[in-house]
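Supplementary material to the annual report.
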Amino acid sequence: SHAAIKIQPMRQFFSSGHTNNWAVLVCTSRFWFNYRHVANTLSVYRSVKRLGIPDSHIVLMLADDMACNHRNPKPATVFSHKNMELNVYGDDVEVDYRGYEVTVENFLRVLTGRLPPSTPRSKRLLSDDRSNILIYLTGHGGNGFLKFQDSEEISNVELADAFEQMWQKRRYNELLFIIDTCQGASMYERFYSPNLMALASSQVGEDSLSHQPDLAIGVHLMDRYTFYLLEFLEDIHPSSKANMNDLFKVCPKSQCVSTPGHRTDLFLRDPGSALITDFFGSVRKVEITMETINLTEPIHFVNEERQKETYSYVDQLPVSEIIHQKPKQKDWHPPDGFILGLWTLILLVFFKTYGMKHLKHIF
Amino acid sequence: GCPKDDFQEELVIRPLHSGDIYASFQFRTLWETDFMRGNKVSHYRLFPKSLGQVISKFSVRELHISFTQGYWRTMQWGQPFLPSPPGAELWVWFQDSVTDVDGTWKELTNVLSGIFCASLNFIDSTNTVQPSASFKPLGIGNVTDHRFLRYATLPREIVCTENLTPWKKLLPCGSKAGLAVLLKSEKLFHSSFHSQAVHIRPVCQDWQCKTTSWELRQTLNVVFDLHTPGQGKLEWSLFKMFSRTLTEACPLASSSKIYIDITDDPQGEQFEVSPATHLLSQAMVLGDRRTFSVYDLTQQITFGTVRSLNLLIRWKSRDMLRPLLHAERYVAGYGLQTGEIHTLMYNNHPYRSFPVLLLDSVPWYLRLYIHTLTVTSKGKDNKPSYIHYQPSKDRVRPHLLEMLVQLPPNSVTEVTVQFERALLKWTEYTPDPNHGFYVGSSVISSLVPSIVAMDTNSTREQPLFSSFFPCKEESSYFMRVYTEPLLVNLPTPDFSMPYNVICLTCTVVAVGYGSLYNLLTRSFQIEEPSPGLAKRIANIIRKMRGVPPL
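Predicted assembly:
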């Protein structure tokens, strides 16, 4: 019957694995010549926002500011394509960690949720066991490590342990890890927690190369892997059925020069059944209800008796008051004559004990 | 009923004598409510909820935060309506019910860093000071115990679109209607000076001041550069400045106006504004009476038949009055051991002297020698009538120096103090230590004599830009001037050296020890040379046969 047919797809609608999506996008490089790493991160940010993940569910970490850098000939813009075709910075960006805040410690604290209590919500990864998380890292890396701001490194062992902590604390349902650095595949070698899928832009021993420079800006704008990833994602829309196998085909060796790699052995589902929008898009669960809900009575404000005191503005520079301000309580010092008296006493005792004949040698 | 709230927006455009143009946006929300009295406020209309919750949770009496990119050049541009130092500045007055001011301050900075997407969480005890005489509350209040005041600056803080986005979201109309549609980041950050600020304070509602309301002012000051590509003549339009035109006022605003400063040319000879308007307004601002052409956006007629307003302003270059007070600061000396900070304050008034309060907050790693402090005017010693100095404590708090100095007329006053640079611990260096370390701007607060009598009636309908600083006297007005921040190099170690030393040492050890070990333990053996091809084949056949090889 009609009702039964309608209920069926709804049950399936509610039985998919995850209920919310998060993204942690990190650019770890500082300095103007690493413009491309910021552009990489911002293009993934742009795609992820476009496919539906709201700013409140994105933790964006940029180690340096390229858009308003004084070397940028077009301020408040970060371009991904040469000839300034696409501004990935946009008009509506919210960066959660920036500048010196992008450190290994802060990154691991965000992942594991062990942040100081006064950290605001926008800087936290408030995921639960039904969250699908996308983690994107870019910067300079090597065999087994990723460099943060040219002053510290995160190793693949630390990263694997952080993900294991996340698994044990039930902080994710499924996690997609993408890394675009030199020798990126070394960073996912050590993973051992379930439900992780990883992609990297190059194998161990290979360098990830940058795409094209823009002569007006003077630096390379994007890395190859992320450039082709962006082009692939631009074709994805929120209801697309493209799956992970398509993602693995992004940037073959002919375009990337390096060999992108991926790892799916820890992922419990078949990658072919995982949609791109499971990680890059956002799920909005809507529950339809037929019952009416009564809103509470509006709050009635009682006009309270206002205090009859009058207020006034404060004098901004009360010169006479400042000059005659009472001096602050200083630290206690012994009264002036005290030290002198003490020394006199010591000398007198000395000469009393050892005889007065020494006194005339002194004076 | 609900406590009433009111929203006003205005834009003031002032052409500067150097050909640049200064635009100042102010958005003010007044709300007659009481955050402090215990009844939880839960219905927010025009006042943004995030700020309302901050005020009630942290018992804030006044909050002033500004983000600035660039430095205000007083000698070329005159005085700004609302001064601000480069980087981020935050000063807060707490209510006297707060018991742990330092703890509340730390939590407040963390929450604000989330609201404004800025790294305000770097504000801690090493860059926070408690001024003893500067920064009196700008709102109403009877008690001013400076124990409840905290002031901090982050001169390194970058301002970009990610700070503008949450700032725009606090406005009642967002950036969808009214004057805020002009706020496009690509144009705003391509300027010589950009400053956005949020000021929250309690104000008087009426002339008797029996009722108070909370005032939230969001201000944005920007100076566009003449020499930006495409400009040549002194002609500006809204479209050239902001790449947008106006189509409507914010529907929630009770007043939405644009003021164009035409003071130097009332007849309209040198100055031309189109579309023309007959509305004129005079206001006393910065000690001077200025005349403005007014465009009222709440009237449909302002937009004309094309339903859009694009103001065009043309003027010939004109002289500027020398500003009465301005200041400079620089570091003198050479090397990485010692240095000297010089602060110069210029009083350009021909015959009046006036007092200034200088506030200096120097980080602990520049060790000031206060016994070398000298204040000289016109070559002679000028003894300050009030000095408050709080010495720094390494890694705990910075130096705080406040002085009240009387500036003689038409003179330069120079304040010098010597310092020594400290060597930081390895982990305290930033990832880019060779850039240098910043010292925040000095703040000079003063009562400058005004050219015309100022209006002390604080509640008459005044444009927003002239009613920010409360005015108590007619003969002088209050002003703040900020100096440049300083960039000093500290002795920086070469961070690649540990790696280099390890490589070198290991190489030497490997070569030295390896050679010695080989010499002592290596023994030589004779080995047969490998046989030719024929012999090898013969050996294979012999192996198959089971016979020993050749």
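Chain B has a mean pLDDT of 89.
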